[in-house]
Write a sequence for this structure.
């Protein structure tokens, strides 16, 4: 789902960051001719994401490395399960270890977190999406991980659609002016989303006939009122102050979309270890 051009850019940049000109410990301790076998083992249950990138990173650094696995992104991995076997030059395996693990653990953390939240509301018709609250440079990969976890993607960047937020409204002199000014300049193919914080702003947004209305930091009762007033005229998205404790209640009132920055911006990495099991010096 991600073009190899982007994957290779991530790999090259990540390896460049971690290796200046040599791996001092590895290159000075391990003989050049040394070969090893290793396993990648889970230390918890999680949803796997990034195994193809993990494999390509090792192969891109040293095509003599062979990785054997039947796992794929989206698979449920269980504690102490072996995810893959790695064979090849010891130096290359050890040099790439941390960089490859960082990517796999982070993306798997996102997919696991997303999957947990999606399952909390699986009996509803509400969609869970991410936001632009991502780490610069790896947004595409984080959003990919959200999809692997069962969520969907909000806009990828500022050019994807027009999203009018509070500061746009203030700067433009109100919702009406902001939407009218924008509509004169955009293509007919560009959707408009607007952020509202109360029922008065909701009415103004509906009058402007936008495509999506974000209900920002609203109380649940206010969201119920908004759903009734909207009456399926446009897509309603809830965002802000949404937690694992209240998400089912919010989804159950009939909101179309819930967007959550926590899917990507504060996720805990999944725990895995790379363990050398055999060495030939």
């Amino acid at each position: 789902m991600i073009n190899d051009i982007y994957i290779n850019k991530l790999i090259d940049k990540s390896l460049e960051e971690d290796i200046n000109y040599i791996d001092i410990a590895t290159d000075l301790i391990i003989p050049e001719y040394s070969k090893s076998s290793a396993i990648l083992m889970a230390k918890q249950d999680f949803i796997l994401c990034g195994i193809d990138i993990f494999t390509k990173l090792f192969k891109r650094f040293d095509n003599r490395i062979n990785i054997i696995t039947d796992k794929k992104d989206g698979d449920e991995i269980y504690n102490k399960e072996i995810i893959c076997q790695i064979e090849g030059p010891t130096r290359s395996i050890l040099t790439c270890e941390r960089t490859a693990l960082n990517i796999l653990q982070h993306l798997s953390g996102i997919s696991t977190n997303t999957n947990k939240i999606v399952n909390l509301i699986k009996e509803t018709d509400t969609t869970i999406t991410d936001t632009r609250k991502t780490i610069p440079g790896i947004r595409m990969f984080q959003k990919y991980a959200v999809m692997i976890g069962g969520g969907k993607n909000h806009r990828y960047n500022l050019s994807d659609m027009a999203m009018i937020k509070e500061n746009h409204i203030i700067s433009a002199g109100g919702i009406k002016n902001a939407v009218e000014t924008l509509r004169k300049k955009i293509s007919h193919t560009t959707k408009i989303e607007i952020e509202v914080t109360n029922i008065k702003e909701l009415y103004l947004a509906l009058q402007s006939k936008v495509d999506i209305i974000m209900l920002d930091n609203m109380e649940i009762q206010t969201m119920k009122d908004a759903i009734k007033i909207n009456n399926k005229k446009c897509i309603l998205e809830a965002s802000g102050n949404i937690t694992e404790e209240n998400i089912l209640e919010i989804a159950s009132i009939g909101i179309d979309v819930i967007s959550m920055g926590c899917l990507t911006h504060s996720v805990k990495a999944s725990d895995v270890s790379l363990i050398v099991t055999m060495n030939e010096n």
